[in-house]
Amino acid sequence: LVERYRTPEFDVRDWELGNEVDVDPDLVPIDSQYGCWGEIEDLDYYGGDYYGEMVKVVGQAIKLEDPNARVWIGGLMIASPDTQTPGHGKPERFLRGILVVGAAPYFDVLPYHAHTGYYNKVVDSESDLAGDWIPWGGGVRGKAVYLRQIMSEYGVDKPLFVNEIGVGCASKYEWCNPSPDDVFYEFQADMLVRIAARVISEDVDGFIWYTLNGPGWREMGLLDGNGDPRYSFTAYQELIEELYGKSYISPVVYHEDVEAYIFGANGKFVHVAWAKDDNQYPILIPQDRFIEARTRDGAVITPVAVGTDYQITVGFSPVYIERQP
């Protein structure tokens, strides 16, 4: 397989060994596209040690055929840092099993998944409704902290990558069935930018939105069923335009109810800011530092002069502020 797909015709260099492997096969259909390496009865490692032995063999074989290949373990679901659901075991211990058998030298990237949803209200479901991950900083950030903590216990340091991320609307909810309204799609686009900024701020190597094609699982596609761009597609384009070539620098405080991050390079700085809740908050930028402010989709925002500052209003939808340091 590696011999065939490493050729210039395909140029495949990354190999992921499964998908959400930290799920017991008894919890999914027999033909499931995810799971199947977990073991509920194994309270120590949830089957991660058995999976780790496979990684040692397959990872080595991949590298022997293509020394430039990157081996990824299967993206971890890690639904909770402390599973309490009866009959579900301890899937959060799966990574420990991989590391305890010495599989770390045989893979290069540690991917994880961080989906969230829409619950018929404009609330940051990735942080404020993240369940057991709330004390850890939310879903995407909390999982990064948790995985790094486990790796450090075993003296391992692997790059993290969120290779499935998305904001969906599950059909089991009446507001998502038969299809969600426009509020959901606006919310999805807002959350894409908020989540992306958090991912980058945690020094995670990257993220992949699930999926490009539409309508997608739980309406997550960046495109709709006709292949037309959704708000999330446009927001993604603008995010790339704003942050391309820039590095994460630090968080910045504009207001106690506003979350914001600084990105910059070569003297050019962009602040990404949004309200933590669904309210509007005024923020001030010194006039001599201000260059331009833009909406989530790139429309120019006209600021209001207040003394020696400019004032703009920030809501749930992120804005970009281009400014001097």
Secondary-structure blueprint of this entry?
Layout (H helix, E strand, L loop, with lengths): L1 H4 L8 E6 L28 H18 L4 E6 L18 H7 L9 E8 L21 H15 L6 E9 L13 H20 L5 E3 L21 H13 L3 E5 L6 E8 L2 E8 L5 E6 L3 E5 L5 E2 L2 E3 L2 E6 L4 E5 L2
Parallel strand pairs: 1-2, 3-4, 4-5
Antiparallel strand pairs: 6-7, 7-8, 8-14, 9-13, 10-11, 10-14, 12-13
Helix pairs in contact: 2-3, 5-6
CATH class of the largest domain: Alpha Beta
Number of helical stretches of at least 4 residues = 6
How many strand elements? 14
Q: Supply the CATH superfamily name of the largest domain.
A: Glycosidases
* Low-pLDDT segments: none
N-to-C SSE string, H for helix and E for strand: HEHEHEHEHEHEEEEEEEEE
**Category from helices, strands and their pairing:** alpha+beta
CATH topology of the largest domain: TIM Barrel
Q: What's the number of domains?
A: 2
The major sheet is characterized as: 6 strands, antiparallel
Question: How big a fraction of the residues is strand?
Answer: 15-25%
CA radius of gyration is 21 Å
Question: What is the CATH architecture term of the largest domain?
Answer: Alpha-Beta Barrel
State the strand order across the main sheet: 6-7-8-14-10-11
The average pLDDT is: 97
Described by the principal axes of the CA atoms, the overall outline is globular
Cα distance spanning the termini: 50 Å
Helix content: 10-25%
3D architecture notes:
- 24% of the residues lie in helices and 25% in strands.
- The chain folds into 2 domains: 2-247, Glycosidases (TIM Barrel); 249-323, Golgi alpha-mannosidase II (Immunoglobulin-like, Sandwich).
- Helix 2 crosses helix 3 (94-100) and helix 5 packs parallel to helix 6 (231-243).
- The strands form 4 sheets. The chain has a 6-stranded antiparallel sheet with strand order 6-7-8-14-10-11, with helices on one face. Strands 3-4-5 form a 3-stranded parallel sheet, with helices on one face.
- It has helices at residues 2-5, 48-65, 94-100, 139-153, 182-201, 231-243; strands at residues 14-19, 70-75, 110-117, 160-168, 207-209, 247-251, 258-265, 268-275, 281-286, 290-294, 300-301, 304-306, 309-314, 319-323.
- The chain starts with a helix and ends with a strand.
